TrEMBL record:
InterPro entries: RpiB_LacA_LacB, RpiB_LacA_LacB_sf. Keywords: Isomerase. PANTHER family: DNA DAMAGE-REPAIR_TOLERATION PROTEIN DRT102, RIBOSE-5-PHOSPHATE ISOMERASE B. This is Galactose-6-phosphate isomerase.
Length: 144
């Protein structure tokens, strides 16, 4: 069973939080909800947990998703997707095996957020032809 952290920005309205947590379907995952304390340090900590394989994935509920994308994308083995649509939520797992999903609550309805998160949680990495790109990235990162 994968461990997944859901990080919620403190600016996210309580009604959004309640609706999200009530409607996210996590049958094959153990979800841990984290409330924002110090956003930058919290994001760094989540990235480090992914690197150490303490958690498999992270879902970041942020105002626009840009800060998590910029901060966490700097870490090796952390693949961040800033997503605002259902199709991209599935494709980012299937093609890139992304382990961080940044979802902007300021630009979408909470029902869409739930759909995006549930799609992300149920999608699987397809490997195959996509492994060539993933392996190339791994080689580049090892050289740094």
């Amino acid at each position: 069973m994968e461990n997944i952290s859901i990080y919620i920005n403190k600016a996210c309205p309580q009604a959004y939080r309640d609706y999200l947590l009530k409607n996210i379907k996590a049958t094959n995952f153990q979800l841990k909800v984290i409330e924002e304390k110090d956003q930058f340090n919290d994001l760094v900590s989540l990235a480090q947990q992914i690197q150490k394989q303490e958690i498999a994935r992270a879902i970041i509920i942020d105002e626009f998703g840009t800060l998590p994308f910029l901060v966490m994308g700097k870490f090796k083995k952390v693949v961040v997707a800033q997503i605002s649509d259902h199709h991209s939520a599935r494709m980012t797992i299937q093609h890139n095996n992304s382990n961080v999903l940044a979802v902007p609550f300021q630009v979408m309805a909470v029902e869409n957020m739930v759909d995006i998160i549930n799609t992300y949680l149920t999608a699987n990495f397809e490997a195959g032809r996509h492994m060539v790109r993933i392996n190339m990235l791994d080689v580049i990162l090892k050289e740094e």
